[in-house]
Amino acid sequence: MEQSNEVSQLFTQLLALLGLQVETYSTLHLTLALGVLLTLSWLSFVISGFILRNAIHRIIERSKNNWDDELHRHGFFRRLSHIAPAILLYLVTPLFLHEAHPLLIIIVKLSLIYLLFSLFFAANSVLDTASGIYNASPLARKAPITGFIQVVKLLLTIVAILLIISNLLDKSPLLLLSGLGAVTAVMLLVFKDAILGFVAGIQIAANRMVTNGDWIEMSKYGADGTVLEVGLTTVKVQNWDNTITTIPTYALITESIRNWRGMEESPGRRFKRSIYIDVHSIKFCDKDMLDKFKEIRYIKAYVQKKVDELAKFHQDNDITEADLLNARRMTNIGTFRAYMVEYLRQHPKINKDLTLMVRQLAPTELGVPLEIYCFSSEKSWVAYEGIQSDLFDHFLAMLPLFELRAYQRVGDR
């Protein structure tokens, strides 16, 4: 009170020296005092901004740490420079104005609100920095924290709103908190997605269900691509056509989802595709065919082994080749299947440590399926599709050599 009167009188005397005769707390006096306060605030903002944004920026450029660069990139020091004028207004205004003056009350409340906003946005910059540094680390692939960062931001927002309201109403924040019980039901409705997303986020992080960078499929939402961000309420997925699909976070634990992470972390990516053989092209191998097959490097040993095995069987059981009922003979489809298996075993891009087979499935109206079941050592999409295409190009081109035909439905002409 005494300091306020002394500063006010001193300010009035200073104005008198400048040739301005004004009464203390008159309209002109208040206008000039407000102008001085705003000028001081602006100067404090400029000085603090210069120190925090320019001087510290040069220090950051010389620093080898990454966290200070992230703080600068997210505007932490720029937002921090707003604290100085807010504090100056709060501390200096009572020296110029009487404590009961309405203008003092307004400026003090506004300065507190200004300070709260500055601290709030500075805290958000710190959280963004922590999120950016964490997401750039290998740990982000195991447990994303974007959802938890958003929860902290939501809590900070609620706290800031409560403090601002309590400042405007001159009520204790605890008194406002005690009144929240009456609107709990409304808040549950308003923050339903946030609450569900928070619970889902805990389960997702604990069980490593989905992380940033995973390839997921959710046909219900039209999502098929890479997870960009697992947020508090939504998950962003960039599809392969570069469109963005947003999925409710809680849907990841309540609905079916296919995550390809297991494939990406495994030693191979599966091939599972069939060639349909025309039934009418399947037949027994005669001597000329067997002689021709013996010239094929991959199955030369196989053919000779089968010929010797069948010859021994016929000799042991006194069976001649003319005995069509009891004689055993090789087929072109069986020999082709053996060729496919051996070709896959020799292929440099096929993982030999995982399951590798060519199996004959039940005949259908489209023919007899020969299914290739093996794993590519290349898991990237482009390389994987290239290897698969090369394999089937080769097998389809080899069919005539085994006197087989691929089935192709011919429409009415």
Structural commentary:
This protein is an alpha+beta fold. It has 3 domains: 2-136, no CATH class; 142-153 and 163-259, SH3 type barrels (Roll), CATH 2.30.30.60; 269-402, no CATH class. The protein is built from 16 helices and 8 strands. The chain has helices at 2-17, 27-62, 67-73, 76-80, 83-96, 102-135, 146-169, 173-178, 184-190, 192-207, 251-254, 261-265, 287-293, 300-316, 332-346, 381-398, and strands at 215-218, 223-230, 234-239, 244-248, 258-259, 269-277, 357-360, 368-376. The strands form 2 sheets. The protein has a 5-stranded antiparallel beta sheet. A 3-stranded antiparallel beta sheet has the order 6-8-7, with helices on one face. Helix 5 packs antiparallel against helix 6 (102-135) and helix 6 (102-135) runs antiparallel to helix 7. The longest helix is centred in the N-terminal third of the chain and has 36 residues, at 27-62. The chain is elongated. The chain starts with a helix and ends in a 15-residue tail after the last helix. Mean pLDDT is 81; it is low at 1-6 and 15-19.
Distance, first to last CA? 105 Å
* Helix-strand sequence: HHHHHHHHHHEEEEHEHEHHHEEH
User: How big a fraction of the residues is strand?
Assistant: 5-15%
For the biggest β-sheet, the strand order reads 4-3-2-1-5
**In DSSP terms, counting alpha (H) and pi (I) runs of 4 or more, how many helices?**
16
- Structural class estimated from helices and strands: alpha+beta
* Quaternary status: single chain
C-alpha-based Rg, rounded: 39 Å
DSSP, total strands: 8
Largest sheet: 5 strands, antiparallel
Give the integer mean of the pLDDT values: 81
Low-pLDDT regions: 1-6, 15-19
Shape: elongated
How many separate structural domains? 3
Please bin the fraction of helical residues. Answer: 55-70%
